[in-house]
Design brief:
The protein is globular. The chain is α+β, with helices and mostly antiparallel strands. The chain has one domain: Class II aldolase/adducin N-terminal domain (L-fuculose-1-phosphate Aldolase, 3-Layer(aba) Sandwich), CATH 3.40.225. 37% of the residues are buried.
């Protein structure tokens, strides 16, 4: 297992890459990984421009989303509760949340749907456990909600119905992806960003 310092360096580089791709406008988005001890998490703090994000902008929280004592003076992201909800699955070790145009537009257009089905794309094989483009997955779609506890409860109740999808969408908001490592989560992020853009192009929607 990679140590915490190396994971922070890896995630910092990834945050800057995501910002450069235009998937993290203003001070939006948040990112985390499970610490080696397993019951605490390193997460990006609130209100930081991701193009300027630095190692000191990480903080640590417990399973309830509360800052550990060394970070008691730091404000965690408003969406920390979604991270801690997802981490109730012990296989999840890293989470990336982005606000790309493709995920935001597609989730807004499909708002009210329970999920977005995807099938037939070769890049689906970039997801864990999928070996054929013919595999059908469904990405769960949730209405946006400022009440994180209520949203977390809905996510926890719904995700078991979508075991093939390491991703969820919030309508008009963006996506969360996860994996067994930061490397897995990055790969899943790239797969879904590509797929969402393909779907929008097929439907005649332009992001330019």
């Amino acid at each position: 297992m990679q140590d915490k310092a190396a994971s922070k360096q890896e995630l910092l580089h990834l945050i800057h890459t995501i910002y450069a791709r235009g998937w993290a406008p203003a001070t939006s988005t948040n990112y985390s990984f499970r610490n080696p001890e397993g019951n605490t998490y390193t997460i990006s703090r609130s209100g930081v421009d991701k193009g300027l994000f630095a190692l000191d902008d990480f903080m640590e929280i417990n399973a309830d989303g509360m800052p550990l004592p060394a970070w008691a003076h730091v404000k965690p992201s408003a969406e920390t509760g979604i991270h801690t909800t997802l981490y109730k699955n012990p296989d999840i070790r890293a989470i990336l949340h982005t606000h790309s145009p493709a995920s935001t537009v597609l989730s807004y257009l499909r708002r009210g749907d329970l999920s977005i089905p995807i099938q037939g794309f070769e890049v689906l094989k970039g997801l864990d456990g999928i070996t054929s483009h013919e595999t059908r997955i469904e990405v769960p779609l949730f209405d946006n909600d400022q009440d994180m506890e209520r949203l977390g409860d809905r996510i926890q109740a719904t995700l078991p119905n979508y075991p093939r999808s390491p991703c969820l969408l919030l309508a008009g908001h963006g996506l969360y992806v996860w994996g067994k490592s930061l490397t897995d989560a990055k790969r899943h992020l790239e797969v879904f960003e590509y797929l969402f853009e393909c779907i929008l192009r097929m439907e005649g929607k332009s992001l330019i």
